[in-house]
């Protein structure tokens, strides 16, 4: 078996962190059962020039730059949905999902919207972009406004992927809001939710802002956090009797430290739920020669856990990483709008 085949055999589900058509095709051949997208992914695809014909057609249609950006996003995600639809049908709706992220500019700190207004827009846009799509997940960030939108979206039947999640508190509040909303549905047969826990960004944070951690603990914070939240998630849903799995998506799975093996996080969280890996990480896994085994329930030593619990300021980490994460999505969306505006000028 190939390394990715052994990873899947542990119980891990593989999602592709891209909706670029050629990469989707390749990932399907490797056993991926879903995909995720975000503004950075969409912007990079458009910037590559591969969708120039669509861009030019939309420019001539009279749409403004923002409308064109969302039409292109909708097209790319819809194309991926079509490719994963057979998996959705075979799994009864448990797999085969593709995520569509709502407008990150809603969270622009320099924008005019209040938290309540942002929440209202998330609800409006979530319902709009979910309508008519069988296997589309709507990605909502675990910001104050995003979390406040989850109950209403879940009640309306929208399948949700809560993203930009770094802490247990974000997870618990998001999960509870979605569950409240789900219980307002007429039935729970198609109820599915996922929670995207970011890993490597936490270790980047501690390497820069928590240098007092020992060498044994440094680089383990993101994994410890993800594994603890995974256990909470397993426990919460165990007695609900739902037909579909409510899962974590392990995100930010690529290593940022050049001294780390590129498969560090993939190896450490093998065994259950979903890993969403960018194309280059899947390539690295395939070339690694590793035979993966179930490791998700293997925790760091008690001494390492105690040190992390003592030294880590979770609130400060949450504030920093959420602001950074929002910025990492706002800037690509702004870049996409600038790119469309530039193409408009070229055609004028």
TrEMBL record:
Family: Belongs to the transaldolase family. Type 2 subfamily.
Catalysis: reaction(s): D-sedoheptulose 7-phosphate + D-glyceraldehyde 3-phosphate = D-erythrose 4-phosphate + beta-D-fructose 6-phosphate
GO terms under cellular component: cytoplasm
Pathway of action: Carbohydrate degradation; pentose phosphate pathway; D-glyceraldehyde 3-phosphate and beta-D-fructose 6-phosphate from D-ribose 5-phosphate and D-xylulose 5-phosphate (non-oxidative stage): step 2/3
The name this protein goes by in its record: Transaldolase
PANTHER family: TRANSALDOLASE
Catalytic class of the enzyme: transferase
Gene: tal
GO molecular function terms attached to this record: transaldolase activity
Active-site residue list: 139
Keywords, in A-Z order: Cytoplasm, Pentose shunt, Schiff base, Transferase
Organism: Novipirellula aureliae
Broad class of where this protein is predominantly found: cytoplasm
Example GO biological process: carbohydrate metabolic process
EC number(s) given by UniProt: 2.2.1.2
Function according to Swiss-Prot or TrEMBL: Transaldolase is important for the balance of metabolites in the pentose-phosphate pathway.
Subcellular location: Cytoplasm
Keyword hit for Cytoplasm: yes
Keyword Transferase: yes
